[in-house]
Design goal:
Length: about 200
């Protein structure tokens, strides 16, 4: 299987963490690309019409996207115990936590693009602050949940990838001072081999 990734993408990292946790890393051939909203990569767009990473191309040529779909597909390949609970309250908690982590990332990546891609004279400071407010509200929600739960599911993985991206692109946010439970969670979770193996390259 080919996995199109940008090593700096937190959504690609989430999929790579899942692959490591489920013992599937050796089955993935990584294809590194760097698409931007204003600069698509034709090779990637041929498989994912949205032009985004991650994108998983199966052996028969079928493509899967986005990170939520790919992560659950990989989890299903590996058997028990699963990162995506099959049913009941545990499943909905894991999916909701994943949605919260992904939502934090959506807002943070949008700010990153605004600052790094859009010319300075065309940037919209009020819009940036609105996106950062979503990030901060999402972190507060994760803090109330005591770091997205104790069981290893897709929920804590998504939360950890979100926190790692904030460290990577937004160190000035200083989220640890406001969220000590999250800080404790991340200190432990980031020591997992799957997280250490997927640290993004220096900015």
């Amino acid at each position: 299987m080919q996995l199109y990734v940008n090593p700096a993408s937190p959504f690609a990292r989430k999929v790579l963490v899942v692959a490591h946790e489920r013992g599937l890393s050796a089955r993935l051939e990584l294809v590194k690309v760097a698409p931007l909203p204003i600069r698509p990569v034709p090779e990637l767009s041929a498989f994912n019409p949205l032009g985004k990473v991650p994108c998983l191309v199966l052996e028969g040529g079928q493509a899967l996207y986005d990170s939520r779909v790919i992560a659950e597909y990989l989890d299903a390949l590996a058997g028990e115990p699963v990162l995506f609970p099959a049913a009941g309250a545990a499943r909905w908690a894991a999916l909701r936590q994943q949605a919260l982590g992904d939502g934090i990332l959506d807002a943070a990546v949008a700010v990153r693009y605004e600052r790094a891609v859009r010319p300075a004279e065309r940037q919209f400071p009020e819009w940036v602050e609105g996106q950062l407010a979503k990030v901060r509200q999402g972190l507060a929600a994760l803090e109330r949940e005591r770091s997205a739960g104790a069981a290893l599911t897709i929920g804590p993985i998504a939360a950890a990838c979100a926190l790692g991206y904030l460290d990577f692109r937004f160190p000035e946010e200083g989220w640890r001072t406001r969220h000590p439970r999250l800080a404790s969670f991340y200190e432990d979770f980031s020591a997992r081999p799957s997280m250490r193996a997927t640290v993004p390259p220096p900015a």
